[in-house]
Amino acid sequence: VSSYAWRIKEADGAWVTTTEGVSLIDLTNSKGSVLLGHRDPDVVDRVCALVRAGLSGWRVEDLIEKVTARILARVPEYDQVAFFKTGTAAVKGAVHGFRRTTGKPLVVSAGYHGWDPLWQSPTAPFTLNEHGVFDCYYVADELESFLQRQAGQTACAILAPDFVNLPADTLIRLFSICRDHGVPVVADEVKFGLRLGPGPSIYNLGLHADAVVFSKGMANGFPLACVAGRGEVLDEVRHCISTLTFEAVALAASDATLEKLARVTAEAGIAREGGRFLSGASGIFAASRLPIRMQGTGAIFQFVCGDSALEESFYQACAAAGLLLYEKDNQTPSWQFKEAVVESALERLAKAVDQLTGELPHLVGAAIPAEAWWAAAWNQMDGFCDPDADPQARRAFLTEQLAAG
Ligand SMILES: Cc1ncc(COP(=O)(O)O)c(C=O)c1O
Q: What is the value of pTM for the model shown?
């Protein structure tokens, strides 16, 4: 019962309805792109008015200026914004900007940055891929030893923060290693930016980057992404345009979305109400004694199952109970996931877990092995989550993941 298997007819607030008339509570929200909830009236009105005015596809300077100003208000340390249609394109634009201005060919990376040949896996862990990218998989020692050898050839580090499976110390350490080696950092905030705070999620750790990328949540499901930064790097990034870079529909959606997110302090509401769900769900799992636990925060979290058969049954039972989940990945509630919806989601989860205890009684009381957590984190962040893991076991795990593609 993959989330793609549902045929959705309509969506409203935190709910979706399938073509067969089934109502589900949506914890996927278009992979985290819909922050305000479905069919947000302010966004719908702005978009419809613009389309009726015949402006779809147009470049409307007013809108570009307004959205630029709204982004810069969230990242006052920067003075320029470059727009893109996808997170993948925006991150690539940032890479281009730093490569062009530094003249250096290599890039270090941690995390997922989109499906693009640039990010192709290397043949072995901790080696360069054929496009000059070194993925450290969030392993600080490996980043350190790569930069000791190659900092002079490295244009920038593209680091995707993670607040679901990664200890905060690890992220802080990765940033400081790059700083110590004089390597500029781009925070890929596509997933966590705007969701964990009004700006980049790294601000929550007191971290700053040389540029940030935003995308999910910027336009409540309409296609828009951006790089914010400064100076000649951003001049280069802004050259990466395509036919519809400035089309007005997504910019109008973004203008309405960013205004409303600030007005209703959406991220605080999402964190609070999601947090209620997280603690209720953790209680349900603890009471059941099934090996399932929650990782993350109220605004974005993941279910970690200690057994693969249990994992499959878990998603099936949740689907049958009326919860739309992003299978094996992170769940991203919207601002409309609140009050009675949270209660209803917890009731649905309790029903699913009840069913599982009946179906899989031999798993009651079982532990969650570290490898199950590693695998869940890998699915969620394309990296290695456990700084205390034995280096040999870590390498074996990563080799296995890379071989599996
Ligand atoms: C951290 C991060 N960067 C980049 C991307 C790619 O963004 P898009 O799918 O919009 O191209 C994603 C997508 O999930 C992401 O999570």
A: 0.98
> How far, CA to CA in Å, does 301 sit from each of 156, 288, 297, 381?
29, 20, 6, 12
Mean pLDDT of 64-71: 98
**Ligand 1 mean position, distance from CA 186 (Å):** 14
Q: Which of 29, 216, 254 to mutate to test the pocket of ligand 1 (most atoms within 8 A of CB)?
A: 216
Q: Tell me: pLDDT of 1 over 70.
A: no
Tokens 């049954």 sit on residue: 313
Contact status, residue 183 vs residue 154, Cβ threshold 8 Å: yes
Mutate to test the pocket of ligand 1, among 83, 85, 88 (most ligand atoms within 8 A of CB): 88
Using pLDDT thresholds of 50, 70 and 90, give the confidence band for residue 378. Answer: very high
Q: Hey, CA dihedral for 31, 36, 40, 44, is it positive or negative?
A: negative
